[in-house]
Design goal:
Blueprint lengths: L4 H42 L11 H17 L22 H11 L9 H18 L6 H20 L2 H11 L5 H28 L18 H34 L1 H23 L4 H4 L6 H6 L6 H21 L7 H11 L7 H17 L2 H12 L5 H17 L25
Amino acid sequence: MLRQPAYRRTLLFCGLIGIPVSLVAFWFLVLLHELERLVWVDWPHRLGWSNPPWWWPLPPALVSGAVVALVVLRFPGRGGHVPAGGLQPGGASKAAVPGVVLAALASLPLGAVLGPEAPLIALGGGLALMFRDLVRVPATGANTELLGAAGAASAISVIFGSPLVAAVLLMEVSGVGGPQLFAVMLPVLLAGGIGAIVFTGFGHWTGLKTGSLEIGLPAPSVLDAGDVVWSVLMAVVIGAAIHWIIVGGRIAARLVVAHPLRNTVLCALGAAVCAALYAVLTGRSPSDVALSGQSMLGQLATDPHAWSVGSLVAVLAFKGVAYALCLGSLRGGPAALFLGGATGALLAPLPGLGVVPGVAAGMAASSAAALRLPVSCVVLVVLMVGNSGTVPVIVLAAVVSFVTTELLSQGPGIPVFSDGARRAPRPASSRP
C-alpha cells in the first residue's frame, strides 16, 4: 500500500490536515472551558456568592434544552449523535459541523453531565472534509473515510493529550477487525493484567529480580491482594450500574424523539433539579452534579477527605440520574470517569483497598462500561493516573466491567428521528 502514489499523497494530506483541525479543536475546547468558568464561577462571584446558589442550574438548563432541541429540529446532522448510543465516528459530514458546535456550546458549559469527546470527533471529521474541498482534492469514498478518521483523531487527541489514546480509540470505535478484535484483545488484556500481578507479587514477596524493560524510574507503591479483589468486585458493580444508567438514557432518548422540543427541555430541567437538590442536601456547589466532573478527578484522588461520605453518596445518586437524562437529550460525550472515580474514593476505606488503586480501577470500570472500548479506556486511564503500579487493576477493572455490561440485557435501541420530527405537517383544512 505504501508503494502506491495515491496512498502516499493521502497520507501526506492527512498530516497537513492535522494542523488546522487540531488548532480549531484547541480553540473550541478553550471556548468551552471559558464559558463554563464564566457561567459557574465568574457570574456567581460577581453577584456575591462564593459558590453558585442551589437554584443556579435551572436557568441555564432551560436555555440548553431549548437550543439543543432547535438544533436537532432545524440543523443538518441534528447536532451530532445521541450520547446514549456511544461514540460513533463514522459518517463524517461538513454540513453537520455548525449544528455539532452549537449543540455542544449549548450543552456542555450550561450543565450537561457529558464530556466533549463526541463533539470533537464529529468536528474533526467534518473539518477534515471541509479542508479537502477547499483545496479541491477529488472526493472519493476511500479518502472520505480516511480523512474523516484522521480529522477525528487529530481533534480527539487535543482533549486526551495523547495521539496514542486517539489512535487506539478510533481503531476500536471504527470496528477495525470487527468482533474478532474484542475476541482477541479481551483475553490478551486479562492475561496481561494477571501476569503483571503475578510478577509484581512474586517480586515483592521473594525479593528476586527478573530481566525487564524498566529504566530506573521511582517505583510506585506495591499492590496487594485487597486492591486486586476489591477492584474486581467494584468493577462488576460499577459496570452494572453504568449499564443501567445508559439504558435509562436510551429510554429518555425515545421520549425525546416523541416530542423533541418539550421533552428535551424537560430532561435538561430534570438534570438541573438533580443538581439543585444535591446542593440543598449537602451544602456543596451544584456544579458537582451539573457538569461532567472530569476536572474534579485530580482533587478527588489527592484529597478524598474533602468530601464526606454523605456527599459522595449524594453526588453519585444525583449525578447518575442527571447523567441518564443528559445522555438521551443533550449533546456531548458519554464518558463517565467521575462516577467511577467517586465510587473508588467512596470505597477506599475498605480493608486492603487504597485510594489511588480504588479511584483508578473505578475510572477504568466506568469508562469501559460507558464507552464499550476496553483497550482505549485502559490506555486513557493509565495515562491519566501516571502510575505504572496501578496498571494491573486498571486492566482487570476494564475487562471485568466490559464483560459485565456485555452479558446484561442491552435495553432499547437508540431511536431514529423521522423527517416529521423536524416540523409537523399542518392538518388539512376542512373548508371546501
